[in-house]
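This part of the workshop introduces the protein records we will be handling. Backbone structure tokens are a discrete shorthand for how the chain folds in space. Once this layout is familiar, the rest of the handout is easier to follow. The record below serves as our worked example for the rest of this section.
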Amino acid sequence: MKKTIVFLAFSFIAACAARQTPIPDPGSGAAKLFADKCGVCHSLPHPKRHTANQWEHMVTVMDKERDHRGVKPLSDDERVMILEYLKKHSR
């Protein structure tokens, strides 16, 4: 019985950890671009995680990390679109 409870608790925690918080306007082109480009290496952070100014810095840092990992950096248009999306939904 104890093993069953431990197994169920572990399964529940693992399922919750795998579930991502939905992002705003998930059907928009900007949200899809954000998911496609920024979800390559990690789970997507919710835009409310940072302020608009913080997102400016984070996108710059992450773009450098993409280059470091051998992933093509964002184009200027992609960068603008993602930043506009993040700033629109930031805290």
Summary: The chain has a mean pLDDT of 85.
